[in-house]
Amino acid sequence: MRTTAAKNVGSVVRGSDSYMSKQGSVYAPGISAETVGSTAVFLGMVTIPPEGRTRAHLHEFHESAFYLLSGEEVELFTGDRLEHRALAHPGDYLFIPAKVPHIAVNRGKTPAVFIGVRNEPTAQESVVMLPELDALVP
């Protein structure tokens, strides 16, 4: 759903169609280049299906921040060899710096739903897939 934003005028976005990202999570952009012509920020909902996971990747030029809105338990693996493991539960915030390889795994039987923000206007702009790291996380 595209909302036309004029200069010096705010916008209300009622939601947009979701899509499967190349990382393996479902994105529903709220504020983005595609929805309102944002030039610096992406804000949207990101869902990892029950017992699902993302594929190994990094974001070359932007930081990502997430708030785990609902679900059970999500494991976040980060680092050059995905050697750092952290657990997130609803109410937790996650931060992933630019250029840091990562995988998120939903260990629960319900969808893990995040509110996510990035300092770039599209969700897929600087994604670099790292298939050689996928097997490091069961």
From TrEMBL:
CDD domains the record matches: cupin_BLR2406-like (cd02210)
Pfam families per the UniProt record, alphabetical: Cupin_2
Residue span, Cupin type-2 domain: 45-115
Protein's recorded name: Cupin domain-containing protein
Lineage, uppermost ranks: Bacteria, Pseudomonadati, Pseudomonadota, Betaproteobacteria, Rhodocyclales
